[in-house]
Each structure stands twice: as structure tokens, then as C-alpha cells.
Amino acid sequence: MNETKAISILLVEDDAADAGLVLRALRAGGHRGRCHHARSLGEALEGLAAGPADVVLLDLSLPDSLGLETVRRMQG
Questions:
Q1: Do the beta carbons of residue 60 and residue 12 sit within 8 Å?
Q2: Is residue 66 within a helix (H) or strand (E), and if so which, with residue range?
């Protein structure tokens, strides 16, 4: 039997409508694993401190970070 591990996704997106589109697309594509939605980089970093994510979908224009600096800060 071939079991596939459900992947854990962290979606970092401050726009509720955009986040909804991504979450619906993930579900429509068959994603059934954990998906945590963070609305700021600070919230995302807190979430990662509590537990890792397999995939991070990162908006580069957040209320508390902008552009490549967002990526740098996410990498730690």
C-alpha cells in the first residue's frame, strides 16, 4: 500500500479575498492536509515557531514587510 504524507501549508496573505482564492484552489486540487493562514509576517513567524510547514506560500507585500526583505526575514 502506498501512503502519501499530507503536506502542511503555511499561507501568508493579508488580503482575505486572495487567501480565500488560494485556499479554494488548494481544496479543488485535492489538498487535504493542514493549511494555516497567517495575515502578516509576524503571525507567520509565530506559527512556524509552534511547528514547521512543508510549504510556505508567501505574499511579498504584507503590512509588516515588503519585497525580498520578506523572504529574507522568513528564512531567518
A1: no
A2: strand 65-66
